[in-house]
Amino acid sequence: MRVAALLMAAGRGERLGAADSKQFLPLLGRPVLRRAAEVLLRDGVVDVIQPVCAEAERGRVDSILAGLPARPAVAGGATRQESVRAGLEALAAEGPELVLVHDAARPVVPAGTVAAVVEALAEAEGAIPAQPVADTLKLAEGGAISRTVPREGLHRAQTPQGFRFPLLLALHRAAPAGATDDASLLEAAGHAVRLVPGSEDNVKITYPGDLERMEAAMLPRFL
Ligand code: CTP
Ligand code: MG
User: Fold this and answer.
1) Rounded to the nearest whole angstrom, what is the distance from the C-alpha of residue 135 to the centroid of ligand 1?
2) Cβ(200)–Cβ(131) under 8 Å?
3) Whether pLDDT at 176 is above 90
4) Of 125, 106, 96, 105, whose CA–CA distance to 192 is shortest?
5) Positions of the site: Positions MEP for the nucleophilic attack (predicted)?
6) Which ligand is nearest to the CA of 159?
7) Ligand 1 atom at minimum distance from 103 CA
8) Comparing C-alpha atoms, which of 107, 109, 130, 110 is closest to residue 120?
9) What is the pLDDT of residue 1?
10) Residues in a beta bridge with 5
């Protein structure tokens, strides 16, 4: 196996505040989790998916992903970082060459992005899709601006993020808690991480309204 992809689905979706975790909600008739798995596989460069979810949801995740090249789900942890570590450990025996880490809450990834991330790993130890920041950035406290922050060079990180598997596993085993994404572990250790073009469509469902906006954007393709 050359390329494995972790599908991160152990979160509880507290900011969305729905009765169910967001990865299980329907997006135009199919669970967000299922769509996120399908977009990972679409470019034909991922050999197998390793889902990571809450212990109690393992059976449900396996049935949502039925028919896809996915390993049985493994249990995640209290933080995303702990969940990624659990997924990496589950793949350690097979030892893939490359690993992608993707949020199950990102069910819309344009065609070509996954392949571009994998391609970029020929020249770097890590690669992530990212979007340049478009808005002017204000540093503020208590509703008052203290200054404008230059946005030149600033990017918003998306997933799937791709890495050489042995390196990401080693960095996770050594990492202190608190990393907000996987690329930051490489950055802190001085490894090269390349950017590939992200997309405004690649939204992480986070707040109320995100799922509905995504459905509205997708709907015309079905009419
Ligand atoms: N995730 C995970 N394990 C955790 C926390 C998050 O696998 N302990 C996953 C989520 O399921 C999600 C992705 O990481 O697909 C991005 O996290 P986030 O958007 O923060 O999702 P939640 O943690 O579910 O949402 P919230 O923070 O609002 O509770
Ligand atoms: Mg979270």
Assistant:
1) 26
2) yes
3) no
4) 125
5) 151, 204
6) 1
7) 15
8) 130
9) 63
10) 49, 100
Q: Is the dihedral of CA 69, 108, 28, 53 positive or negative?
A: positive
Q: Return the closest-CA partner of residue 103 out of 3, 222, 8.
A: 8
Ligand approaching nearest to the C-alpha of 181: 1
Whether residue 13 has pLDDT greater than 70: yes
Q: In the structure encoding, which two tokens stand for residue 197, read together?
A: 């073009």
pTM above 0.90, yes or no: yes
Enter the ipTM.
Answer: 0.99
In whole angstroms, what is the distance from residue 203 CA to residue 181 CA?
A: 16
Query: What structural domains does the chain harbor?
Result: 3-222 (3.90.550.10)
Q: Whose CA is nearest to atom 13 of ligand 1?
A: 103
**Amino acid identity, position 218:** M
Ligand nearest to the CA of 83: 1
Q: How far is the CA of 12 from the centre of ligand 1 (A)?
A: 6
Output the CA angle 76-47-5, nearest 5 degrees. 30
Neighbours of 35 (CB within 10 A): 22
DSSP state of 139: E
Q: Span 137-148, mean pLDDT? A: 96
Burial 186-212 (b: 16+ CB within 10 A, else e): beeeebebbbbebeeebbebeeeebbe
The pLDDT of residue 139 is: 97
Residue 129 DSSP SS3: strand
CA of 9 to the centre of ligand 1 (A): 7
Tell me the C-alpha distance between 71 and 18, whole Å: 28
Give me the residue label for tokens 């469509």: 201
